[in-house]
Amino acid sequence: MRNVWIVFKRELISYFTTPLAYVLIIIFCFLSLSLCLFFGGFIERGDASLSSFFYFHPWIYMIFGPAIGMRLWSEEHRMGTTELLLTMPISPWEAILGKFLAAFTVLAVTLLSTIGMVFTVLSLGEPDVGVIFSGYLGSFLVGASSIAITCAVSALTRNQITCLLVSVTICLVLTLIGFPPISDLLRSSSFLGIKLGFLADICNGVSLFWHSTEMARGLMRIQSLIYFISLIGFCLFLTSVIIRSKRA
Amino acid sequence: MIEVKNLTKQFGPKVAVDNLSLSVRKGEVLGFLGPNGAGKSTTMRMITGFLPPTSGGVTVGGDDMLEAPNLAKARIGYLPESAPLYLDMTVEGFLGFTAELRGKSGSEKKAAVDRAIETCFLQKVRRQAIDTLSKGYRHRTCLAQAIIHDPEVLILDEPTDGLDPNQKDVVRNLIREMGKTKAIIFSTHILEEVEACCSRAIIIDQGRIVADGTPQDLRRRASRAGAVHVVATGLSGGAIEKELGGLRHAARVEGSALAESFSGIVWPKPNTGAGVLAAEIYQLAGAKNLVLSELHEDQGRLDDMFRELTSGNKS
Known about the structure:
Chain A is an all-alpha fold. Chain A has one domain (2-247). Chain A is built from 14 helices and two strands, in the order H-H-H-H-H-H-H-H-H-H-H-E-E-H-H-H. Chain A has helices at residues 2-17, 20-39, 51-55, 57-69, 71-79, 81-85, 92-112, 116-124, 129-156, 160-176, 180-188, 197-206, 208-216, 222-247, and strands spanning 190-191, 194-195. In chain A, strands 1-2 form a two-stranded antiparallel ribbon. By secondary structure, chain B is an alpha/beta fold. In chain B, 36% of the residues lie in helices and 28% in strands. In chain B, helix 3 crosses helix 4 and helix 4 crosses helix 5 (135-147). Chain B starts with a strand and ends in a 5-residue tail after the last helix. At the A-B interface, helix 1 and helix 6 of A face helix 2 and helix 3 of B.
């Protein structure tokens, strides 16, 4: 655990000594608030709730997660510091976990900086605090999942742009397959006489979007929590496999 | 300290390191020589636990690199080939980070960082960001990282690459000094460096050891070693060459015969010393009124030896 902490500390300091973290935090706040205000009908709705705020989060994370995570291993590969890090007396797991947690912390700081929204709705009316909490948790888990996906992709390449594009694509697919227009399309169509409704359920089940909108509505299902945690766990495991096989 | 047994590494169909075994004791500085692509870096990466070997094993101080990697790695200080660093950190911050990974904290960490900074002459830049440093300083920062925990074993991959002559000298002196108490393996292309700091040298080619011995041993194995260099005037070059060839102890003469002079090498017959041959040449010069402007025994040169062993069989 001590080694996880050491790697975590270095990685986090590195996020904040370069402009990266600040830029990302500002962009996230700007995007999430402007989308919510201009396209989410936050004001027109006349309702003290953050559902229009959380609605756009999965879309923002599609780019935001990969933007935070793309440097995690790509940068190490490019600079050759992987060789330094992995010949230290630490296990690859400790390095992976430390790095992931640092990116995770940047995400947490980012979300914390949107706390103004909570005070806004609290002053406007009497929102359901449980729903807000569930929405934040959902948003947080979607962000963490996209970071974990990016973490695995970044272990594959030394090029950050490649990593960004591939990760965005994966996140896009994972978001879109749970997007209602696509679910509806699947439900209403059939292939060789077989109704494809069951596919829509499967797609929803593996989609970041569906789980996050459900949580934004205040539906904190144990299935959703298991989904996010196992997705993150799987991606980190994949990272360790990639790092191992890259060296072989 | 370092035991390497039947180490083999394949990348796809290409064999980078082929059944290589070696051992290095404490107090020994092993120079690792070989042409580019001979497998030097790959071998070092396996010894430091970065690359897993295809077969064979490495133990460092009795700890197996595959079975107890953290114990084995803790004994090693490693300077990778390109001296990689975290560019966004300061020298002090970076060394502090590596000291922590090496299990040091608090005052112990501070002392280790100070000692490494002093040993590698980094005092002037200790608070500077690494990406603002010149190559020489970067290289020494990475070297400082390798010695921060005062390891028993040092693996240095081209430690003097890209340094100016003064810096090279500093690093060589460091290696020599540390070699008294540690087991050191370092790779280089510069043969004079091997003579300057190694107690033993290994030449590898195509992943295999082709020579192993002290630098003096290796020099003696060069084909010219023990031959006699002659530069003489007084007769036509052709005549001198003929006279030399006719000597009792001369086996072979090679050189350039000019109108008025001869300059070349005479090999003694087997079981004949160079001294005996040189004395005979001297007598010959007296008898034929030759003027010898050069007459000395070839001590053998490491680069001759290196070229003979590693060229001509490029795949």
